[in-house]
Amino acid sequence: MSDASSSLRSDLPAPALRVLSRATRHTTPCGDGDLVWHTWGDRADPPLVLLHGGSGSWTHWIRNVDALAEAGRWVVVPDLPGFGDSARPPGGQDVDSVAPAVADGMRQMCGDAPVDIAGFSFGGLCGALIAAAQPERVQRLVLVGAPGLGLRSRRLPLTSWRDAPTEAEKLAAHRSNLATLMLYRDEAIDDLAMAIQAANVPRDRMHRRKLALTDLLLQTLPAIRCPLSAIYAEQDALYRDKMDELRALLEAAPTFEELVVVPDAGHWVPYEAPEVTNRELLRLLPV
């Protein structure tokens, strides 16, 4: 069994449950429990593995999975080890232990043929480590708002929700944190985003993560052999003042192909700009 305290499903709002109802649930071994996967679409279609961000779950891709499946991809989305409904990874508390567990599960889910990966934030760093360590497993990689380029060494100031005495104050903290880190436009912080945030963050059991604040991705890029592209938002709170530096670092990678900059969106660009994200993923990862 997973070591998550309870199923994420029990806390999800109705719109998320409707998306989940169209998925098939799978498990692969992970540490002392299971790595939980959800898939959308036809298994005969080319697989596209989506990796979510830190303190998240498959729901970081909630506005993308149906459209990508309808476009002819078998969409494969794990709750990364230590998040959502998945057990903690063996041997560590950061992305360097998450990546091998995901790669093992991905082989069981998708077989031996290489797959396309799109990784959002922490998931992008995870995907890069998989592509570098196991090049035969990854056909193409798209980084979406990924950290680890050495451009930021401090976390953004977030509001503590754990100490809030009432549910209303907890929700206020979640709203504040979405505005600080995840979403750019006020109207993007809607009821669904709030509910997803409130359901995801209590199930983050990887509290000692620090590698995203290092240059781990930058150091990994030269070892990636597959075609590499990236999608970043113009108003990403992590990079809005460093976009020129970000572009230069990515373009120096040996297999880098293209950087897509999405205007009027923040860090959680798959949620805030789903149509653009879906269109660009399908263009960058053609069948």
TrEMBL record:
Check the record and name the SUPFAM superfamilies matching this protein: alpha/beta-Hydrolases (SSF53474)
Query: Domain AB hydrolase-1 spans what residues?
Result: 48-279
The answer to whether the entry has keyword Nucleus is: no
A GO molecular function held by the record: hydrolase activity
Protein's name according to its UniProt entry:
Alpha/beta hydrolase
Keywords, comma-separated and alphabetical: Hydrolase
> Pfam families of this UniProt entry?
Abhydrolase_6
| Record's keyword annotation contains Hydrolase | yes
